[in-house]
Amino acid sequence: MTCGKRKPVKEVAAPEFPYIYRWDRCLGMPVLGGVRKGQLCKVLIRGGRNSCTVEFADGFQAVTSRNALRKAKPEEICQARSPSK
Questions:
Q1: Could you give the dihedral angle defined by the CA atoms of residues 34, 39, 70 and 31, in that order, rounded to the nearest 10 degrees?
Q2: How many CA atoms are closer than 13 Å to the CA of 50, on its beta-carbon side?
């Protein structure tokens, strides 16, 4: 039994930083973390009680709630990668 022709699957590379930090709070001391709202990040470790360790593009790491994260939209990822004028 044949299933017919299948359309080729378009391979899309996963973004390096697929999440956006959405809380307007300081992570740690303001000198170290500052306000991170709207910055791209990635999850390094998922912990218990809905916590996770995240890393931002500048290398800063913090433990936070996973409620503070949301998936980044493709246009937000492209916008963050393009150089600012």
A1: -10
A2: 5
**Cα–Cα distance for residue pair 26/58, rounded to 1 Å:** 16
Higher pLDDT, 25 or 82: 25
- Domains in the chain, please, with CATH? 20-81 (2.30.30)
Give the tens place of pLDDT for each residue, 4-23: 566 665 666 678 999 999 98
Helix (H) or strand (E) holding 2: none
DSSP character at residue 1: -
pLDDT score of 25: 75
